Amino acid sequence: MPEPTVLDATLLDRVRSWIDTGGRHLLGLAGAPGAGKSTLSAALLTAFPGQCVVVPMDGFHLAQSELERLGRAARKGAPDTFDTAGYVALLRRLRAAEETVYAPEYRRDLHNAVAGAIPVPPEVPVVITEGNYLLLDDHGFGPVHGLLDECWFVELDERVRLDRLERRHVATGKSPVAAHEWTRGPDQRNAELVAATAARADRRVRVA
């Protein structure tokens, strides 16, 4: 059976069923760097205006200064460069839906996260959280999958993914050479780690 593409009827019906059911539902979008997680998140926001909020895992990047102190700046984006415990704690608060929760947002122009940037009111029925390691079982990410109603694994043609990722790095300040090396170095190592988690997903979604 072919996998669904971005926002086919199967995906739309699944999210609509959560909205109709009431209560709070958490949808995870996992996938390699540049695979289209943010694209799919944006499409869901457009399809269900006012019914969804996106809370990216990237808001839990350790600060650049802390990565440098720890000697991990050259591996930024690896599992141990995130405040995983903080992310898990946020997901638990989001699932409880007892109050407005303020989530952090990663700013590529600042190369750091900004605290309290994303408000999630308790009446919002669907919270979409997207990130590389939602299906990873170590580095503290183990509890994440159990806190989600479903987790979809987002995939993209590999050549397209690498090209888009490289262009994104250039757009946020890297030289073309540095962007190429980072995409095929640290990013690719992370992508291979993420790919190994795909079997844990509830469904796999191929984007264009």
TrEMBL record:
Membrane spanning residue stretches: none
Domain Phosphoribulokinase/uridine kinase span(s) in chain numbering: 27-175
UniProt keyword annotation of Cytoplasm present: no
Keyword Kinase attributed: yes
Molecular function GO terms recorded: ATP binding; kinase activity
Pfam family, one: PRK
Keywords noted in UniProt: Kinase, Transferase
Coiled-coil zones: none
Signal peptide: none
Matches recorded under Gene3D superfamilies: P-loop containing nucleotide triphosphate hydrolases
InterPro entries assigned to the protein according to its UniProt record, in alphabetical order: P-loop_NTPase, PRK/URK
PANTHER family xref list: URIDINE KINASE
Name recorded for this polypeptide: Nucleoside/nucleotide kinase family protein
Organism: Cellulomonas denverensis
